[in-house]
Structures
1.
Amino acid sequence: MKLTQSQLETFDRDGYLFFPSLFRPEEIKVLLDEVPALYAQRRPENVREKTGDVVRTNFAAHLYSASFARLARHPRMVEPVTQVFGEDVYMHQFKINGKQAFDGDVWQWHQDYGTWSNDDHMPEARAMNVAIFLDEVNEFNGPLMFIPGSHKLGVLEARHDTSTTSYPLWTINNEVIGKLVARGGIVAPKGPAGSMILFHGCLVHASSSNLSPWNRVSVYLSLCAVSNHIRRFKRPDYIAHRDFTPIQCLPDDCLLKEYEVSLPWKDRFVEPVRQAS
Ligand code: SIN
Ligand code: MN
C-alpha cells in the first residue's frame, strides 16, 4: 500500500494518518480469536492492570503466535512505513493492549520517542507507531487521543511515572499538555475493528480508562528504520527488541492463508505441563 502525496503532507502536518476499516472482519477475527489464549499465559510478556489479573498489555506476540507473526509482516501495514522512512524497517516493539471492559486503565499523556530516546538510546525519531483496532473503538471505551501537530516540537520534558498505572511511563505534565491543547486541540480517531492509525514517535498521546462494557483490544507496533536501531539494551528484550533484521513482507492475503513464519519464542517462558501423579 502506497501513501499519496496528500497523505504524506497530512502526516507531516498533523503527525498521524487514520485508515478506517483497512483490514476486513474475517482478517481481524483470526487475530482476535488468539487473544484470550495469549492473555491466559503466565509469562513476563503479559503485564497486568494494577487492580487485578486483567491483562493491560501483552508484548512480542509476533515471536510466539503465528497469526500475529503474519500481521507483523503485513504489506498494508509495513509498506507505508518503509515509504515514509525511505529504508527498510525492523520491529522495535509489538504489543496487544487490552483496555478491557470496566478494567482497562489510563495511558497518561506521553510521547513514545521520549522513552525510546531516554531508555533505548534510539538516535532519531525515525520509528513509526502503528495502531490496529481488533475491536471497535468508540467514544466510551478509551479511544487513543492525539494533540495534532505536537510531533513538531521534538522531545518534550517528561517525568518517569512508576505509580499511576502498572506500567512505568515517561509522562508530560498537565501544564504543558494544557498549552499544547490550546494550540492543537485533541482528536480521537474512532472506527470499526480493522481500522489502522499511523502516528509519529513524537506525537503526544494518551487514553482514558474504559468504563464501558466493551473491550478495546488494539495492536500497537513500533517500526524503526534499520539504520536508526537502538544503541542501549537496558529494557527487557521483549519490550525493546534487539533483532534489527529488516521485515520481509508476506503477500496481502497473509492473515487468511497459513504462510510459514518463524516463532523463535514459542517455548520461551511457557509453564511446564504438570504430570498427573
Ligand atoms: C500507548 O501509548 O502505547 C498505548 C495507548 C493505548 O493503548 O491507548
Ligand atoms: Mn505510546
2.
Amino acid sequence: MHQDSNHSPEEALKMNPFPASWLPVAADSDFPLWNLPFGIIHNAWLKPRAATRIGDTVVDLSVLAEAGYFSTLPQDLVRVFRQDSLNDFIALGKPVWKAVRERLLSIFSEEDGSLRDKVVFRNQALLSAKEVEMLLPVRVGDYTDFYSSLEHATNVGLMFRDPKNALLPNWKHLPVAYHGHSSSIMVSGTPVKRPSGQINPGNDGPVFSPSRNLDFELEMAFVVGKDNPSGSSVSTAEAEDHIFGMMIFNDLSARDIQKWEYVPLGPFLSKNFGSVVSPWIVTMEALEPFRVAGPPQDPVLPYLSFEGKRSFDIRLEVWIQPEGAEAKRVCLSNFRYLYWNMAQQLAHHTVNGCNMRVGDLCASGTISGPDRESFGSLLEITWNGRDSIQYSDGRERTFLEDHDVVVMKASCEKDGLRMGFGECVTRILPALQTLSK
Ligand code: CA
C-alpha cells in the first residue's frame, strides 16, 4: 500500500482496500492484512490475551500495546488486551476498534519498518498459529438464535407442517427467534457428546435414549458491541454501530428430541448441549468491501425498514469427515441468502426496550439457499433421513454418527482477492453412558 502523507490511513485504505503486508500471506489464506480478526490466545507459557492473525502469524496485541505501538490511542489497551475475553476491549467502542485496526494496517503494511525492522523485539509479539490455542473470544452474556432463512423455514414447514402453508403467517413480518443457552457455546475444536433425552420414535410414547438424529445447523453469529439501556431500542440505521463482528456458528441440534419437545414453547434440550463458534471474530470493518443487497422483501412495518445494502457476500461450506474416511463437502451456501439482515434482527430484538449488552450473541438461524446443495442442515439435505449422503468408501450418512467431524468454513472474495473466517470444527463423541431412566 502506497500511503503518501496527504492521506490518513483510513483514506488510504479506501483508495486501496487490499494492502499487502511484510508478513508472508499465502494467496489462499483466510487472514490477509485486510482481515485483522480478533481472538483470544493462550498456551503453556502465555496467559490468555488478545491477538490478531496475519497469514499463519498470530500477533500478541498485549505485547504491542505494552511497547507503545498504540500510544496515540487514549485508552488503556494493555489492560484490555491482557484479559481472557475481548469484552472489555469491545466495550471501549467502535472508534477504538477502528483506530486499533488502522494502526495494525499501518504497522504491518509493506513499507512500514516500525516493527518489521526490530527483529529481536518482534519475536516477542509474533507467534506461529501452531504455537497457540484459541479460546472462546467473548464471554457470551445472552444468546439469541434467529430463524432468518426463508428457504430453511420453508423446508422445515414442508416437512413438519402443512405443505400448502409451509411458512407461518408471522414469518415475513418479523425476524422469528428463540432465546438460547449461552453457557454451552464453545470454541471450535471442543468435542461435543451426543445428547440423550426423550424421543418418541414410534409416536406411541417417549423413551429415554441417545439422540438418533443428531444434526448440524450452518449459521453465522454476530457479537453485540455496544450496550443499549433497558427501555431503549436500536434502529436499523444505528444497528451496525452496535455490532462488533461475526463468527461461524454451528448450532448442533438433536432433531428427535426437538420434535417431541418443541411444541408449544420452542427448542430446549435439543439445542442447549453444545453450540460451536469459530475462534476469530471478523469485524464489520473487514467485511465492508463484501457488502451486498439481501433478497427482496415483502413490505414490513416502518421500524424494520432500512436503507442501503445490509447483507454480505460470504461463501459458506460444510464438510463432514467420518472417522477414517475422507472429508466430503455436503453444503455450499451463502450468507447473502438470508431474508432478514442483522440490522433488522437487532432492531426487532430491541424494539420492545430489551437491553442488549456487549458480548451478547445473535445467531442467524440455519442458512439455506434455493437448491439442495445449499441446504444448511442434514435435516434438509437428507429430507429428514429419506435420502442419504454417499461416501466413496461405501459409507452413508443421514444424520451425524459418533466420531464424525463437522467442519464449517466461511470466506469472502472480491476482485480475485479473498479473506475468511478460519474453520469451525466439531467432533461428535459417543453419548454418556446413562442409567436407564
Ligand atoms: Ca438454529
